Amino acid sequence: MSKPLNIGLIGTGFMGRAHSNAYRKVSNFFKLPYHPVLKAVCARSADKVKDFAETWGYESTETDWKTLISRKDIDAIDICTPNNNHAEIAIAAAQAGKIILCEKPLAMNGPEGLKMVEAVEKAKVPNIVWYNYRRVPAVTLAKKLIEEGRLGKIFHYRAKFLQDWTISPELPQGGAGLWRLDVAASGSGVSGDLLAHCIDTALWLNGSLDTISAMTETFIKERKHTLTGKTEKVGIDDACIFMGRFKNGSLANFESTRYARGHKALYTFEINGENASIAWDLHDLHRLQYFDYKDEGKLRGWKSIHVTDAGGDHPYMDKWWVPGLSIGYEHSFVHQVADFLESLGSGKPAMPDFRDAYRTQLVLDAITESAKTGKWEKVESA
Ligand code: SOE
């Protein structure tokens, strides 16, 4: 018998919607030891939070996250706020003994992330960070192929995440929807927002980074601030490029920007090993490109493995439709909830937990430092 897990969601933006959608769908498709109950949603505006609760089917609303955390009928706190609130809320939730699901990136920086890790480990509460792209079936398949040793020794890991939505100098910084441009709320720009996804996937697929050398740029130096009404200095990075060396000896080549005209969410990675290469592109998320040198000479070439075609042999796909039919971006969140609920039953933590996500935070810290000093930086171990 599946047990209820009462969710208290904080934040009603894009991610609040993505998570709520996942909570609503997961039990219809996955047989799990727990099923989410949309108990309460919390946001500062009473009108907006009521509207959100009605749209997504939350039983109640709060306007103060401290009240939400103090409620005995809430089992799990889901943090979908801007990054500068993650630590305070997560630490308070851990002290109250709540299960915690936190949006990425874990924190504003490494030291803050470490406090969050220590809080959840001390309280022994289950925790996870929403790096959702790990659970796109073709990406999970890439993990499987690597674990099976099919690529052999890895030489190169290449990733990029490109968008174009901040090119206009008229776009203000700060406030609802635009807090990603305000360094006080976000901690960083594209590095924490986009590159963090690439780093999380890379650490998962290819192990730890050892050293990095980074370059960042802020193309628009001043923007009007929505909260103060004044034109203020922009503190985020608009673009970030870094190269590096993984501990397994392979070379890293990463890029992210919000100034790549024509690109809305081009997340791609390619891994080259001695026996095989794999490549993935979010725009064609079901496809894993695979080249295996061991294939018979005359048939050797890039294979286009489409995870909908295998009749459910690929990760998560047996839970959805008949072969040939697609799922999408939103399902990566459903898969993350499914794995997390499964882990609550088995006691085997689902990744990335706070400590695992802290490793990404340490790479981000090294990027910030290297961009400042112009020097190579060692990535600290978690
Ligand atoms: C930024 O535009 C953003 O929404 C990120 O915040 C998400 O994490 C990413 O998945 C898509 O782009």
UniProtKB/TrEMBL annotation:
The keyword Oxidoreductase applies. Keywords: Oxidoreductase. The keyword Zinc does not apply. Gene3D superfamilies: Dihydrodipicolinate Reductase, domain 2 (3.30.360.10), NAD(P)-binding Rossmann-like Domain (3.40.50.720). Residues 5-126 form the Gfo/Idh/MocA-like oxidoreductase N-terminal domain. InterPro entries: Gfo/Idh/MocA-like_OxRdtase_N (IPR000683), Gfo/Idh/MocA_oxidrdct_glycsds (IPR050463), GFO_IDH_MocA-like_dom (IPR055170), NAD(P)-bd_dom_sf (IPR036291). PANTHER family: BCDNA.GH03377. Residues 141-278 form the GFO/IDH/MocA-like oxidoreductase domain. This is Gfo/Idh/MocA family oxidoreductase. It comes from Telmatocola sphagniphila. One of its GO terms (molecular function) is nucleotide binding.
